[in-house]
From TrEMBL:
PROSITE patterns: FE2OG_OXY (PS51471). Pfam families: 2OG-FeII_Oxy, DIOX_N. GO terms for molecular function: dioxygenase activity; metal ion binding. This is 1-aminocyclopropane-1-carboxylate oxidase homolog 1-like. Coiled coil: none annotated. The lineage of its organism: Eukaryota, Viridiplantae, Streptophyta, Embryophyta, Tracheophyta. SUPFAM superfamilies: Clavaminate synthase-like. The keyword Oxidoreductase applies. Belongs to the iron/ascorbate-dependent oxidoreductase family.
Length: 358
């Protein structure tokens, strides 16, 4: 590749960003190569050998009424959170029709014209509704082949008219199901840590809920770029809905392993803040998404955290999980400061937790 000055790169980024059309706009324009600022370094693109990851399954069927099933689900969730930081959830109570409609409506928004979706295009991450291509476009060394619509659904959901029409109704319906599911999962994870079921809930771990609705168009040169580069999630847990296209990978013992979609299930990721408060007992999983020559791939990531806007609560390793032989491994931090650090550094391949280690 020819020499690429910082000023040239910045000019190209600004011109691309000004279109408000994202990578969908490049795909629609018939680009047969990816712009230079999407090209990732060779080590980031390591893809071989590829194998499927055996993802643990947590079955929530009957957990509300059957103590034995609840204990089994808590043990399964806790074991997966310790060993891998990720698991499938089945029998979760969200109707398949709702899952299908959510994916279809997200696709509908991203396939609107720029005159419609451009109204929501912004680099101001504090806005209620944020649509853009790469939240860290001007910070990252290489952009990802992905557009994203995001908005907060808790603790203060937007007014219906503030959301894009394409996904307005389904967003509120989907949020009601996901909030219930998130509460159940956090209760089970609390129990697996030997805490009261409501311990993490009382810590406000489910007070905040933000949707990240990703759109990955078909890429003309998927071997040169990524859909999402290596990262771990910032919150406590993430509930991920993905379509059937695939592309999600998890880093396991320095090898990237595929996480094939399981129809009707969710993927649950342990986030950085849950690793922090569990003092490394639970693991925040590093993952990425490959670019693909077919598409689009649609996914909806629902991140649980505290109230991002107003919470002043300090989060550090729980006293119940630390001791003389297992001292705290992290400094205390507020959710606001942690997210500010996460967003400032972008998806640079390094864990945000490193900044808070003692």
């Amino acid at each position: 590749m020819a020499a690429y000055s910082d000023s040239e790169r910045l000019a190209e980024l600004r011109a691309f960003d000004a279109t408000k059309a994202g990578v969908k706009g490049l795909a629609d324009a018939g680009f047969t190569s990816v712009p230079r600022f999407f090209v990732h370094p060779d080590p980031d693109l390591e893809r071989t050998p590829r194998a499927n990851l055996q993802v643990p399954v947590v079955d929530l069927g009957g957990v509300a009424a059957d103590p034995a099933r609840r204990a089994a689900a808590a043990a399964a969730a806790g074991g997966a959170a310790e060993a891998l930081g990720l698991f499938h959830v089945v029998n979760h109570g969200v109707p398949q029709q709702v899952l299908d409609e959510m994916l279809e409506r997200v696709r509908g928004f991203h396939e609107e014209g720029v005159e419609v979706k451009g109204e929501y295009y912004t680099r101001d991450l504090s806005r209620k509704v944020v649509y853009n291509c790469n939240f860290d476009l001007f910070q990252t060394q290489a952009a990802n082949w992905r557009d994203t619509l995001s908005f907060s659904m808790a603790p203060e959901p937007p007014r219906p008219e503030e959301l894009p029409l394409a996904c307005r109704d389904i967003a509120f319906k989907y949020a009601s199901y996901v909030q219930k599911l998130g509460t159940v999962l956090l209760e089970l994870l609390s129990e697996s840590l030997g805490l009261n079921p409501d311990h993490l809930i009382k810590m406000e771990c489910a007070d905040g809920l933000r949707f990240f609705m990703h759109y990955y168009p078909a890429c003309p040169e998927p071997h040169l770029t990524l859909g999402t580069s290596k990262h771990s999630d910032s919150g406590f847990i993430t509930i991920l809905l993905q379509d059937s296209l695939g592309g999600l990978q998890v880093l396991r013992q320095n090898q990237w392993l595929d996480v094939p979609p399981v129809p009707g299930s969710f993927i649950v990721n342990i986030g950085d803040l849950l690793q922090l408060i569990s003092n490394d007992k639970f693991k925040s999983v590093e993952h990425r998404v490959l670019a693909n020559s077919s598409g689009p791939r649609i996914s909806v990531a629902c991140s649980f955290s505290t109230n991002r806007a107003t919470s002043t609560r300090l989060y550090g390793p729980l006293n119940e999980l630390t001791s003389h032989n297992n001292p705290p491994r992290y400094k205390e931090v507020t959710m606001t400061d942690f997210l500010a650090h996460f967003n400032r550094k972008g998806l640079d391949g390094r864990s945000a937790l490193d900044h808070y280690k003692l």
